[in-house]
Amino acid sequence: QVIEMVGDSFSSFEDKDNYKKISIDTLDLLTKKILEETNIIPSRFNEKIKKELIIKDDNSLAILLNFNEHITIRSRSFGFLIKDICQQAFKVEEHFASCMPFSFDNELGYIVSDIFYFGTAFFQSALLSLPGIVMMGQLGNIVQDLRKTGIAANGYYSPNASASMGWVYYVYSDNSIGKNEEEQIFHFSNSVLRLIYIERELRLQLYLKSKMKITDMIAKAVAIAKYAKLLDVDEAMDVTFKIKLGLELGKTIGTTHEECNTIFHKAQIAHIAYSILNSSFKSLSDELIKAERAKLINQFAKKVQLL
Fold it and tell me: How far apart are CA 32 and CA 42, in angstroms?
C-alpha cells in the first residue's frame, strides 16, 4: 500500500523523469551490496517486507520505501554541500507532504520508529579523512568534545585492520530531538567546518614537525599506487588518502580531491566484483579481486607526480 501511494504521488513530481524505480526483490546480492557500499540502502533491513527504491539518475538522491521506515529520503554529494543536498531532499519531502498524510504530532514532531530521530526525523552525516588529527594524537579529545554537542564519529575499518582506512571517519548527528531542520543544518555544518579547520591546523603542524617522514610516507604511497599488483581494500585506501594528503600539502599533483574520494567506493569488494563479472572474467577469487583493485589504483595514480 505504501509503495502504491508513493508511486501515485511521485507520478506528479516535476522532476520524475530523472528518476528510476527499482524493486529490491529483483536485485541480486552483489547489486544490493554495491548499493550498501555507496550508502544508498542500509546494511540491515527486514527482507520479508516488499521494498522499492526510487533513485535519481546521478545517484544523488534516493527514496527508500519500506526499509526501516515507510519512507526514507537520502540525499548525498561528494564534497561538503550540506545545504544543497538538504534542499534537494526537502523538495521531495514537501511534494509528498502535499499528496499524503504523514504521522505528525504538534509536540513530538514526525513520528518514526527510532526514538533518537523523533522530532524532525532528520539525520546528517559526512565522511572525512583526518590524518592530522589522528597522527597528532588528538582524535580521542576531539570526539569527546563533539559528543557534548550531539555529534558522533566512528572510524571506517576493514575486517583485520586496527586503524580506520585512510584515516576516514563517519561524522554524524546523534539525534534530532528538539531542533528544527534549519537549526540542525546550522549546528552540523558549523561542527563539521570546525573539525575541518582543526584538521588543517594539525595537518600543517604535523608536516612542519616531521617534514622528511611525511614526504617519505607520501612518496612510498605513490610508488605502491603506481606499481602494486595485489591490494587489499585497506591498502588501497591507505595509499589513496596518503596521495590526497600530498595534494593538501602541495607534495603531489595529477589528481583531484574528488577522484581520491570516489576511490573510497570503487575499491570496495562489491564494486570490484561487479567490474570483474562484467568483464571477460566470469568467476571470482580473492587474488583476482586484489589484482583488479590494484589495476584500479594503478590507473588512478597514473598521472600522479611528486613535487
Answer: 10
Q: How many CB atoms lie within 10 A of CB 145?
A: 15
- Write the CB contacts of 170 (distance below 8 Å, at least 6 apart in sequence): 125, 126, 127, 153, 154, 155, 156
Residue 160 pLDDT > 80, yes or no? no
Phi and psi based region of residue 111 (left: phi greater than 0; alpha: psi -120 to 50; beta: remaining): beta
pTM of the model: 0.84
Which residue type sits at 156?
A: Y
In whole angstroms, how far apart are CA 46 and each of 24, 51, 68, 121? 12, 9, 8, 20
* Ranges assigned E (strand) in the chain: 19-23, 52-56, 61-65, 71-75, 104-105, 109-110, 125-129, 151-155, 168-173, 252-253, 305-306
Between CA 171 and CA 165, with CA 259 as vertex, the angle to 5 degrees is 45
C-alpha cell at 122: 532528520
